[in-house]
Amino acid sequence: MIFDCDGLLLDTEECWADAEEALFAEHGLAYGPEEKRLLLGAGPGTAGRVLAAAFGMPGQEEPLFARLLELATARVVAGSRPMPGAEGLVRRLSGSLPLGVASNSPRALLEAALGAAGLLYHFDAVVGSDDVDAEKPAPDTYLLACRRLHAEPALSVALEDSRTGVAAARAAGMLVVGIPSVAGVQLGTDLVAHSLSDEAVYRFIRGNVRRPAR
After folding, report:
1. Are residues 201 and 102 in the same domain?
2. CA distance 148 to 137
3. Residue 208 class from Cβ within 10 Å (0-12 exposed, 13-18 middle, 19+ buried)?
4. CB-count exposure of residue 184 (10 Å: 0-12, 13-18, 19+)
5. Which 3 state secondary structure label does DSSP give 151?
6. So what's the pLDDT on residue 201?
7. What is the dihedral of CA 191, 185, 182, 46, to 10 degrees?
8. pLDDT for the residue 213
9. Which range marks the domain in which residue 38 is found?
């Protein structure tokens, strides 16, 4: 069982949005729904390209993302709290299934945010964008998390809130539960629920996650 983090496991999307808005303001530009949409679920590479294009600064992708990460880190760590139903679901699954996190955020930030929210110790593997060669929508983060959990992707379930994450989990060959972070977005998952507190999510996981035969 592998969770995405931002907007799915932890309520950090507004933290990132505040950081993005601050960065746009530093460059004298407005930040609105379209900019938020382009950056939602984006890893360092994609976010850097979006920022460089928006600011007219080709070749500055890495320093622009580094500045965004600097702005976001304090906000995410200070403001991290579990999404509705997340803590309860994680506690119900902890100890009975291998649990992991696969995210487009850097791993150090993931671990700090999960630790601040009191959830880090439940997870057997935490994989960030800096642990792999290709960020989501490539399958690399999910495949590495499965390897570290000694789990077969086809016998595992991913929980996601964005199209980028769903594409990554699908490419890894996993079943996917969708909890959309933006109302009205169609994720194309095996199950869609309004939050992690929906009992259908727990039933789907218990009915589809299988330990590999030894």
Report:
1. yes
2. 20
3. middle
4. exposed
5. coil
6. 96
7. 100
8. 53
9. 13-79
Quote the pTM value: 0.83
CA angle 117, 6, 161 (to 5 degrees): 130
CA pair distance 148, 150, nearest whole angstrom: 5
Query: What is the SS3 string spanning 86-113?
Result: HHHHHHHHECCECCEEECCCCHHHHHHH
How many structural domains compose the chain?
2
CB distance 202 to 195 below 8 Å: no
- Which CATH number is 199's domain given? 3.40.50.1000
The Cα 40–Cα 63 span in angstroms is: 19
- Which tens digit of pLDDT belongs to each residue from 59-110? 999 999 999 989 988 888 888 889 999 999 999 999 999 999 999 988 988 9
* Spatial distance between the Cα atoms of 154 and 146, rounded to a whole number of angstroms: 10
User: Among 191, 195, 194, which Cα is nearest to 205's?
Assistant: 191
What pLDDT shows up at residue 133? 95
Q: How far apart are CA 53 and CA 63, in angstroms?
A: 13
Packing angle, helices 107-116 and 61-79, rounded to 10? 10
Same domain, 70 and 38: yes
Of 31, 63, 79, the one marking the end of a domain is 79
Residue ranges in the chain whose pLDDT is less than 50 = none
- Asked if residue 213 is part of any domain, the answer here is no
Does the N-terminal peptide bond of residue 33 adopt cis geometry, omega within 30 degrees of 0? no
Q: Which residues contact 38 (CB under 8 A, 6 or more apart)?
A: 50
